[in-house]
Amino acid sequence: MAFIDKVLQKPSYGWSHENGDLIIPTTSELYAEAFSRINVFATRKNWISGISWLMAVCLIPFAVMAFVYFFSVPLLVIGLLYGMIIMSTHGTIWFHRYSTHKAYTFSHPIWRFITQNLVIKTFPEEIYVVSHHVHHAKSDQPGDPYNAKGGLMYCMLSDVNHQSIAKDLTEEEYGKVAGFLKHTGVWMNSYKTYLKWGSVASPYYTIGLWAVNWAFWYMAFFMIGGHALACALFTGAMFWFVLVRAFNYTGHGKGEIKHVEGVDFDRRNLSVNQFRPGLFSGEWHNNHHLYPSSARAGFLPFQLDFAWIYIFSLYKLGAVSSYRDSKEDFLKKYVTQNQE
């Protein structure tokens, strides 16, 4: 079995049938798997899956306060903009282009730490990064942790059902998985501690950073606009945190071939360039699959890329020391060539 096939914890219903076709579980099977994966009383190794949902649950009181005690149309708009643009763009900048694909490097760890905590923290890097490497290796195939062919709920529940690392890795295999996160600054478990906790990230670091991040941002927002603004922005973070789980379902054509001529050039998978994620967060997904290690994904004139603007601005300020930009290669291969 190839290493990439061993990285993630296999769900109880499996990835594929004996003939190689994707297993599409029922909704009840998906929920049963989810609740078994967050049950920390069954095994402490479920802690990282459990904390992913715990973060979402802990955001609910802010939403209740925002709608019951502080609701106003301006605050609603501010909260939505924070979730749809600020949180979304940060996800592209930090989790996607840096943490997973190393598309750019920071000149000093302080800039990495600032970028990591630029918004309200929602989920551990490990949940995103390791599984995203598998996603690129097995896009739209059995084993892809958020395979759009599995349906909407297959993707919505993937953070707990399909994105945790395997709990029975050898020391050599664990070293390779830990290597996916080494550059992020996340405090990592030794192999001995991994056998205890079932994760790369230290639970003490993860929970501690979460607490400090939330305390800082609530205080900052409170000083600007009181409890009303703080609750509105934490609510915006909650909506992004929940709805982002649907991205790979829509971003891969809902499991169908929906490529648009002259827009989606990578036909090796089902990924498509969507306007809302593209314009709001620089997530031109088909472009990204073509050039996953590029710090820029908005290659065509209409493809605004806020994430790239942030990265390039930090480069000009000296906070980013290097980056990879595949726009020139893209234009040469897919635009200029087609015009000749």
Textual characterization of the structure:
This protein has helices at residues 3-6, 27-37, 47-68, 73-100, 109-116, 125-137, 152-156, 158-161, 171-179, 191-197, 203-243, 247-251, 275-281, 285-290, 306-317, 327-339; strands at residues 104-106, 320-323. The protein is built from 16 helices and two strands. It is mainly alpha-helical and 340 residues long. It has a two-stranded antiparallel ribbon. It starts with a helix and ends with a helix. Helix content is 57%, strand content 2%. The protein has one domain (3-258). The longest helix is centred in the middle third of the chain and has 41 residues, at 203-243. The model has no long low-confidence stretch (mean pLDDT 95). 45% of the residues are buried.
Keywords summarizing the entry:
16 helices; mainly alpha; 2 strands; 340 residues; single chain
Give a brief description.
By secondary structure, the protein is an all-alpha fold. It has helices at 3-6, 27-37, 47-68, 73-100, 109-116, 125-137, 152-156, 158-161, 171-179, 191-197, 203-243, 247-251, 275-281, 285-290, 306-317, 327-339; strands spanning 104-106, 320-323.
